[in-house]
Design brief:
The chain has one domain: 3-Layer(aba) Sandwich (Rossmann fold). The protein is globular, with a radius of gyration of 16 Å. 39% of the residues lie in helices and 17% in strands. By secondary structure, the chain is α/β, with parallel strands linked by helices. The chain has a 5-stranded parallel sheet with strand order 3-2-1-4-5, with helices on both faces.
């Protein structure tokens, strides 16, 4: 049997995570089965007005993955994600696909990223079926109107959503 050298593999999972959902958590856990380290890149998007501050979002994600130690790193990022991934020596960008409607945009983005930085691949992962329909936007909208989202987000996120909307 040939001796295969293992190099430390890093993937970047970008998003706004406003807030992190069980769907995001599922994708990160799936990525941890494929890569040694997942760097969760909390995007600073000037075009969006997030409910939670960048610090709150980073803290929520770190709390969820505290038991994973250095295998899950969380940082804020701005600018071109594929260049950030290359600077982190990441092999791949992780992108979650919920439905066929996500694919067209994600496919175009992956091709553009590949053109910009050939060494970084895009890996598409689908969340488990029970999370396929959720998004941060849908969660916030339901929570804003008093809907119970406790089974779709971590307990701390549920608590923070209730506090934000004073429910």
């Amino acid at each position: 049997m040939e001796d295969i050298q293992h190099t430390h593999s890093i993937a970047v999972y970008p998003g706004t995570f406003d807030p992190i959902t069980n769907g995001h958590i599922d994708i990160i856990n799936r990525a941890l089965n494929l890569f040694d380290t997942v760097l969760v890149a909390v995007a600073i998007n000037p075009a969006k007005s997030p409910l939670f501050t960048i610090e709150e979002r980073i803290d929520m994600i770190r709390e969820v993955f505290q038991e994973n130690g250095p295998r899950v790193r969380v940082e804020s990022v701005s600018g071109l994600l594929v260049e950030y991934a290359a600077k982190q020596n990441a092999r791949a960008l992780i992108r979650g696909l919920r439905a066929v409607s996500d694919f067209d945009y994600e496919f175009q983005l992956a091709l553009m990223n590949r053109k910009l930085v050939r060494e970084v691949d895009t890996v598409f992962l689908m969340p488990g079926l029970r999370w396929i329909f959720i998004s941060s936007s849908i969660i916030k909208d339901a929570a804003r109107h008093g809907g119970d989202v406790s089974d779709m987000v971590p307990p701390r996120v549920d608590e923070l959503l209730k506090r934000k909307f004073a429910l």
